[in-house]
Amino acid sequence: MTNTTDTPHRSPLVAGLLLAAGGGRRLGGRPKALLTHRGRPLVEHAVRVLREGGCEVIHVVLGASADVVRERAQLPGCVLVDNPAWAEGMGSSLRAGLASLAAEALPVDAALVSLVDQPGIGAEAVARVRSAYRSRDSLAAASYDGKRGHPVLFGADRWAGIAAGAVGDQGARDYLRDHRDAITLVDCSDVAEPYDIDTEADLAHLE
Question: For the segment 90-138, what is each residue's pLDDT rounded down to a tens digit?
Fold first, then answer.
């Protein structure tokens, strides 16, 4: 009889990818990462949400005033990714973030992507979307009243295709539209609000 040894099972690694490079053009040029929320830079809140939602590895893409963000924000344990092309739009930040995750020392199976300017989306929404991971081919997204939103989950086998189409301010929008039948929508309407902090009026959402 032949003895067999079971190969240890490795739990899938779903890394958090926070896009925090925006310059806040409609906010008078105030970088969104540095907006104050609960007494601290907004980027700290967004990282905490990812961590509390179950992401142990977190990469943060910085752009506008990146040096100031590094100086003022406390982001221990995060990989900070500079995107010098941040002004081109979200697409460049998504490409930079996926490239950084691909170079991560640990084998990352999926990226859970969130945006720094959506403080109404908390850890429970992150955990729900993260739990939708099934394979490195997974595609999943939070939904709000039936409409797709953030966070979104991209299995690693999808990254090359997503990066190829991430241009301008579109991010992964075109890729998700073309692969809509493969997306698992995860209803988060009861635990999160997907508003953006884009204008002066939106600042009322910050605490």
Answer: 999 999 999 999 999 889 999 999 999 999 999 999 999 999 999 999 9
At 113, is the secondary structure helix, strand, or coil? strand
Establish how many alpha carbons lie within 13 A of residue 69's alpha carbon, considering only the half-sphere containing its beta carbon. 27
Distance CA 82, CA 86 (A): 9
Is the model's pTM score more than 0.85?
yes
- How many Å apart are CA 121 and CA 109, to the nearest integer? 23
Which tokens sit at 165? 């189409």
Q: Is 154 helix (H, G, I), strand (E, B) or coil?
A: strand
The token pair at 147 is 């409409």
Predicted confidence (pLDDT) per residue in 138-191, tens digit? 999 999 999 999 999 999 999 999 999 998 887 899 999 999 999 999 999 999
N- to C-terminal Cα separation, the chain: 67
The answer to whether the CB of 138 falls within 8 A of the CB of 153 is: yes
- What is the phi/psi pair of residue 201, to 5°? -65, -30
Residue 137 corresponds to which amino acid?
D
Residues near 189 by beta carbon (within 8 Å), at least 6 away in sequence: 143, 144, 145
Each residue of 65-94: b (16+ CB within 10 Å) or e?
A: bbeebeeebebeebbbbbbeebebbbbbbb
